Amino acid sequence: MNLPIALNSLGTLYDGFVLCGGRSHRIQIYPANKKEKTNYKISCDWKLRHKLKDYLPLLKERLESCNNLDGFLSDLRTLIDNVIDHTPVNHFPKYYDVICKDLEDIGWEKIKSISPQFRKIELEFKDANERTHILRINVTDNYPQESPEISTELPCPFIPLWVPGGSLLSVCEQFTTSLEMYQYLWDSVDELKRECWILEPEHPNYSCTSLRISLGKNCSLKIQVNPLQPDELPECHFLGSNSVVAKLQAKYQQGYEDWSENLSILQNITAMIGVELPKRKDRDTETNIQCGICYCYRLGTDIPNEVCNEEKCNQIYHHQCLLEWLRSIPGVKQSFGVLFGECPYCCAAINVKILAT
Prior knowledge:
Number of helices: 10
Domain Fanconi anemia complex subunit FancL WD-repeat containing: 7-81
CATH topology of the largest domain: Ubiquitin Conjugating Enzyme
GO molecular function, one term: ubiquitin protein ligase activity
Number of domains: 4
GO biological process, one term: protein monoubiquitination
CATH architecture of the largest domain: Roll
Order of helices and strands: EEEEHHHHEEEEHHEEEEHHHEEHEEE
Distance between the termini: 67 Å
Helix content: 25-40%
InterPro entries: Fancl (IPR026848), FANCL_C (IPR026850), FANCL_d2 (IPR043898), FANCL_d3 (IPR044037), FANCL_d3_sf (IPR043003), FancL_WD-rpt_cont_dom (IPR019162), UBQ-conjugating_enzyme/RWD (IPR016135), Znf_RING/FYVE/PHD (IPR013083)
CATH superfamily of the largest domain: RWD domain-like
Structural class: alpha+beta
Domain FANCL UBC-like: 93-182, 185-280
């Protein structure tokens, strides 16, 4: 590190340059009172002052207590060599200009949030029906030679095509094209949310392709939609007492061939099983959703999925609640991993599988 040189024989006035962070900075040291030659002051450019800002009180104290300026300059050199030059400096990443250009091409109004270092970016897009979708981008150090990390909520994984030197604009164009693929699926799910009572998940997001819909009388329908062909007949599985499920299953077997790609999922289901689906607002009068043992709907992430087969009862239970209940009763029979006992409500025969852990 270069040091300022004395400009007089008394060593009370120094002027020169110091090397800090790979750059030379001019620095002057002179007495505040020319007559007394005491209370020295330091003058330097604002860049060096910024680098020294955390150490200014220490430097001021050392300058006031030193016997001569040579000792102070030696301490300054030690501070810069061993502390400041070894402290990581927060510079903007090398891809900063490229990111700014990309965001300008995409449109600044699309930005939902951005980190101070431009490393994490959230962009907001609207689909054809004004639904809001968030595209999360995590830029790597090698951008744009290396693809950024992308995450979003779509029914299928979104993996954009990337070539070295690519741009975020290309990613966004591929994303908006992907949004167009799922309009039918999202329109159908929105209709189900409005017109039905969706048991699971409680709040479907844009990646959801599996729904459990209440059919009333403690019976439900689980559908699994193919996101690439959402207008085709989905996988259907009825849950409930054997007597109720058997009737619905028979209607399904008779009507599934009439599934129409011109109708929505709700319209097809209603026509296929001939049942008017209860709405969420009707839940208090249409069906009981609480477990008959713990009197709760959710047990951790589980909801009641065991049903008494007695049609006049149809009480529902969490699998774990019913399993523990039957295990607590002396004399309950067990065969091939199944417990056989009585419904806690009506005493009708009921059984539950012992799931492997």
